UniProtKB/TrEMBL annotation:
GO biological process: methylation
PANTHER family: METHYLTRANSFERASE, UBIQUINONE BIOSYNTHESIS O-METHYLTRANSFERASE, MITOCHONDRIAL
Similarity-based family: Belongs to the methyltransferase superfamily. UbiG/COQ3 family.
Organism expressing this protein natively: Novosphingobium aerophilum
Gene3D superfamilies: Vaccinia Virus protein VP39
InterPro entries for the chain: Fumarate_lyase_CS, SAM-dependent_MTases_sf, UbiG_MeTrfase
This protein's name: Ubiquinone biosynthesis O-methyltransferase
Residue positions binding S-adenosyl-L-methionine: R50, G81, D102, M143
Reaction equations catalysed: a 3-(all-trans-polyprenyl)benzene-1,2-diol + S-adenosyl-L-methionine = a 2-methoxy-6-(all-trans-polyprenyl)phenol + S-adenosyl-L-homocysteine + H(+); a 3-demethylubiquinol + S-adenosyl-L-methionine = a ubiquinol + S-adenosyl-L-homocysteine + H(+)
GO MF entries: 2-polyprenyl-6-hydroxyphenol methylase activity; 3-demethylubiquinol 3-O-methyltransferase activity; lyase activity; polyprenyldihydroxybenzoate methyltransferase activity
Pathway: Cofactor biosynthesis; ubiquinone biosynthesis
Family annotation (Pfam families): Methyltransf_23 (PF13489)
Length: 253
C-alpha cells in the first residue's frame, strides 16, 4: 500500500476526507451534470455499467428476484460523492429510502432540484461523510470518489461506520496503472472527454491497496470486476482491471 502524501500548509486536517480544491472543481460542473453531452458525458456512459453491477450485487447479497423492479424496498441506501444524483436517483427508483452526500454544495443543490422535478424523495446533504451523522444504511455506494479524498483510510472508515449489520457496500475507482494514466488523463482529459484536472494519477488505488484499506476498516472485499473500454462495446464490465474496477465489500465475519 502506498504511503500517505506528506502534509502541506494547505492540506486538510488529519481524518478529514474532503479536499477543498476537489470540491470546488466538481462544484463548477454542477449546472452541467445532467447534460449527457456536457462535461459529465463520461459519467452518463459509465453509469449504466455501474448500475448493472450494483443490481447484480443487490440480488446476490439479498437473494432477490432479478426480475423484480424494486429490490431495495424497505432498505436504506447511501450514495457518497453523489454529485447531482446520477446514481442516487436509480437507487430510489429501485425502492430504497435514499440519501446522497457530496462535498460540493453546488452539486447538492442541483441534485435536490433534479430529484424534485422527477418526483423523487431523496435526502441530500453537503459535507464530509466523516462528520455527518446520518445513521446506518443497508447499502452504501461510493463511485469514483476515493481517488479524490484527502485521507483514504479515514474515508473508508467513515463508509464502514455507515454500513448497517448485514449491509452491502459497492465502490468503483480507477486503477493505478499505466493504462489508466494514458487513457484517463493523457487522452481523455487532453481531448476534452473529461474536464481537465479531474484526475491525479498518484491518487489512483490498486485493488490490493483498496483491499488493505477495507480490511483495516473491518470489511472484506469481493472479487473486483473491471470496467473496460473498447471501440465496439464502449464501457463494459470485464475481467480486465487495468483501467477501472468496481467491487463489493461486506463486514468481516
Amino acid at each position: 500500500m502506498s504511503p500517505p502524501a506528506p502534509a502541506t500548509a494547505s492540506s486538510p486536517a488529519p481524518g478529514a476526507t474532503i479536499r477543498p480544491e476537489e470540491a470546488a472543481h466538481f462544484g463548477r460542473l454542477a449546472e452541467d451534470w445532467w447534460n449527457p453531452k456536457g462535461s459529465s458525458a463520461m459519467l452518463h456512459k459509465l453509469n449504466p455499467v455501474r448500475l448493472g453491477f450494483v443490481r447484480a450485487a443487490i440480488d446476490a447479497h439479498w437473494l432477490g428476484d432479478s426480475r423484480g423492479l424494486r429490490p431495495l424496498t424497505g432498505k436504506r441506501a447511501l450514495d457518497v460523492g453523489c454529485g447531482a444524483g446520477l446514481l442516487a436517483e436509480p437507487l430510489a427508483r429501485l425502492g430504497a429510502e435514499t440519501t446522497g452526500v457530496d462535498a460540493a454544495a453546488e452539486n447538492v443543490a442541483a441534485a435536490r432540484a433534479h430529484a424534485e422535478a422527477a418526483g423523487l424523495a431523496i435526502s441530500y446533504h453537503a459535507g464530509d461523510i466523516a462528520t455527518l451523522e446520518l445513521g446506518r444504511f443497508d447499502l452504501v455506494t461510493a463511485m469514483e470518489v476515493i481517488e479524490h479524498v484527502a485521507d483514504k483510510q479515514a474515508f473508508v472508515n467513515a463508509l464502514a461506520h455507515r454500513l448497517g449489520p448485514g449491509g452491502l457496500m459497492v465502490l468503483s475507482t480507477p486503477n493505478r496503472t499505466l493504462a489508466a494514466r494514458l487513457l484517463l488523463i493523457e487522452a481523455a482529459e487532453r481531448l476534452g472527454r473529461i474536464p481537465r484536472g479531474t484526475h491525479h494519477w498518484d491518487d489512483f488505488i490498486t485493488p490490493d491497496d483498496l483491499r488493505d484499506l477495507l480490511g483495516a476498516a473491518g470489511l472484506t472485499m469481493g472479487e473486483p470486476r473491471g470496467i473496460a473500454w473498447s471501440p465496439l462495446q464502449g464501457l463494459h464490465l470485464s475481467d480486465d482491471l487495468s483501467l477501472n474496477y468496481i467491487v463489493t465489500a461486506t463486514a468481516t465475519l
